[in-house]
Specification:
Layout lengths: L2 H16 L11 E2 L7 E3 L3 E6 L2 E6 L3 E8 L3 E9 L6 E9 L2 E7 L10 E7 L15 E2 L9 E8 L2 E6 L7 E3 L9 E5 L7 E10 L19 E5 L20 E5 L31
Antiparallel strand pairs: 1-15, 2-5, 3-4, 4-15, 5-14, 6-11, 6-15, 7-8, 7-14, 8-9, 9-10, 11-12, 12-13, 16-17
Amino acid sequence: MPPSFRCLTTGLAFLLLGNTPPAAAAPPSRTVPLTPDAWTATDSIRFVSHLGRPALYIDRGVALAREAAMENGVLELDVAATEATNFLGVAFRAASRRFSNVVFLRPGASGTEEAVQYGPAFNSVGVAWQVYHGEGANAVAELPRDRWIHVRLELDGPIARLFLDRAAAPTLVVPRVVASGGAGLGVWAGAFGQGAYFSNIRYTAAPASHAASPEPTSPPGTIQHWEISSPVEAAQFTPEKLPDLGGLTWEPVRVEPQGFVLLNRYREAPVGGVPRDSTGAVMVD
């Protein structure tokens, strides 16, 4: 082979290698500080030492990290239930402290299909589990108390995947997360004061790899257009007489993809919420 040909080949190889684009950098992981200034809550929270490490304690309600925002990516943390804990979980895609999605654990139902649950918590800290229940919202898991359990939540477009204790397979896959209009992150402990601990909270935002899938088609005959009234106090009802409806105002509302109206989107839940006088104050031991 002539020498000139060999030189040309070498030069072309160098040119091709030199124009190979660099590999994309991995998204940065961010740690949420366990300090009072980094959190806002529906009720009082504390920053303590628990099971040998710094932790956030929340007795009830929701606590959101002030500077954390992630619509898609990975949220990881460790959670610990006490003997009194009934509910503990994570809030994600939160528009506010009272408007988020929640995946939560129920240690008292450990080993059953009620052990892990998903649902939206709109206009309350209570989750609409009665509506979002069953396949895609419940899962079986063993949930020990008084030890740290690692939780990994992957958000990918409409899909959420929950992994427990560094398992390779997800414990729960939510095929369609309810639209909430937010990107906030935080922790959740129900509304009735059982208390839970959270530690090592970090998140990594990333683009979604799944585009939103087409909304499911409602069954034939489903009513698609509704109006709901302004709230009516139950005390106005008697068995003999309806309340005066003349003073009510009416609001058009839309159905969810499944074909029902989720009233929690539009009205505050009458039970299971945080008291109206809750200040969100942070208590520091």
